[in-house]
Amino acid sequence: MEAMKKFLPAVLAMAAALCCLGSNSNPALPAVSTIRVPNGGIQPQVVERDGVVHMIYFIGEPEQGDLFYVRSKDYGRTFSSPMRVNRETGSAIAVGNIRGAQLALGRNGRVHVAWNGTHETDRPGVTESYMKKPMLYARLNDAGTGFEPERNVVGSAWGLDGGGSLAADGEGNVYVFWHAPIPGKKGEDNRRVWVAVSTDDGKSFAQEAIAYTPPVGACGCCGLKAFADNQGAVYALFRSATEVVHRDIYLIASTDHGRTFHGNDISPWNIGACVMSSESIAQSQDGIVAAWETEKQVYFAQMKAGEDRIGTPIQAPGPQNNRKYPALAVNNRNDTLLAWTEGTAWKKGGAVAWQVFGKDGRPEPVNGKADGVPVWSLVAAFARPDGAFVVVY
Predict the structure, then answer these.
(1) Phi-psi region of 27 (alpha: psi -120 to 50; beta: other; left: phi over 0)
(2) Contacts of 129 (CB under 8 A, 6+ apart)
(3) Which one, of 146, 175, 315, lies nearest residue 257 by Cα?
(4) Mean pLDDT by 10 residues, the chain (393 residues)
(5) The 3-state secondary structure of the chain, one letter per residue
(6) 245: left (phi over 0), alpha (psi -120 to 50) or beta
(7) Cβ(277)–Cβ(224) under 8 Å?
(8) What is the pTM of this model?
(9) What ranges do the domains of the chain cover?
(10) Around Cβ 295, how many Cβ atoms within 10 Å?
(11) Which of 220, 235, 239, 386 is most exposed by smallest CB count within 10 Å?
(12) What is the dihedral of CA 200, 205, 207, 209, to 10 degrees?
């Protein structure tokens, strides 16, 4: 922790500058600023609520590092001292970009975090390393002074590869998602999306169950994204792996607190490879906004609350440059910011780019790009009360 603190003043000074790359001079349009992840961290995840920006990020060796939580009450100009999330040193992973931690806020603003664990769980008779890796969950304690010890929520659905996710609502429900093979089976076509549900703010979790039963498989090294909206519905985006080559994006939704899910294929992509993709979901004034990657391009679409069907997909304008890892934010005017990375690859960093769209889905003359996305990192975004957006990378 002392090593972390010594970097804080310099980082806060950098954040205070709030570089306004790609912003605009028209006050009728939302401005866009950029900030770097505090303390040299990577893989930021951000949630803004009631004037507080909550962020988690990764620091350490990519194969075995640690997670830290900070908050900001001035929309990214300054941040609190970092609080370590994981109790077991080196229990988080950054390799592959999509296996890192996910963040959600639940009832009374409690912070929930879930991530792919690195340390193998003792499973007698099991030899494959990936069949021993836990799906870890931790929550902020009642006093808000630290995180409770992380817990493994996998009961029978072992076989982590790509990333998990989580969602939390205002009624005390917490959902941890991951994909893994049906017990006793192997192969991407036998992978399913699983969900473990808590009804007591993460204090305890029920045995995991298959969230989506149709046999569409799951792309082994791809991430998924979960989200709970302000009406109590919960969603997840994931990439299928039907017959190896049908790696489509599926949207699933539940309106009965995770007991049953319905879903649809929203973006086909035939490719016989694991594309290591991620997704994003955000609340809008009209419902939900979802973003994903297909054929090296990023898209987003609007949908109504509780539904598994989307409106017309909208793609990021301009030439494609290996666009990946989309992030969304929606402001109080119902403008949408779509941010993504360009040029990133295995063990290779890249740039962050962004585009603002009006409430009608048309691109506004507000866009930009900045180099410097580190190796294994992602981008995040949030909106300020004045309608401006902040991109974190």
Answers:
(1) alpha
(2) 120
(3) 175
(4) 41 40 65 98 97 98 98 98 98 97 98 98 95 98 97 98 98 98 96 98 98 98 97 97 96 98 98 94 96 97 96 94 96 98 96 97 98 98 98 98
(5) CHHHHHHHHHHHHHHHHCECCCCCCCCCCCCEEEECCHHHCEEEEEEEECCEEEEEEEEEECCEEEEEEEEECCCCCCCCCCEECCCCCCCECCCCCCCCCEEEECHHHCEEEEEECCCCCCCCCCCCHHHCCCEEEEEECCCCCCECCCEECCCCCCCCCCCCEEEECCCCCEEEEEEEECCCCCCHHHEEEEEEEECCCCCCCCCCEECCCCCCCCCCCCCCEEEECCCCCEEEEEECCECCCECCEEEEEECCCCCCCEEEEEECCECCCCCCCCCEEEECCCCEEEEEEECCEEEEEEECCCCCCCCCCEECCCCCCCCEEEEEEECCCCCEEEEEEECCECCECEEEEEEEECCCCCEEEEEEEEEEECCCCCCEEEECCCCCEEEEC
(6) alpha
(7) no
(8) 0.92
(9) 2-392
(10) 14
(11) 386
(12) 80
CA distance 329 to 380: 9
Q: What is the largest CA-CA distance in the chain?
A: 65
- Rg of the chain on CA atoms, in Å: 19
Q: Distance (Å, rounded) from C-alpha 36 to C-alpha 273?
A: 32
Structural fold of domain 2-392: Neuraminidase (2.120.10)
pLDDT of residue 274: 87
**The pLDDT of residue 19:** 43
CA 367 to CA 355: how far, in whole Å? 4
> Residue 382 and residue 390: Cα distance in Å, rounded?
5
Q: ∠ at Cα 386 (381, 390), nearest 5°?
A: 20
Which pLDDT value is given to residue 25? Answer: 54
Q: For the chain, how many residues are written?
A: 393
The two tokens of residue 184 are 């006793």
Phi and psi of 50, rounded to 5°? 55, 40
Distance of CA 350 to the CA centre of its chain: 19
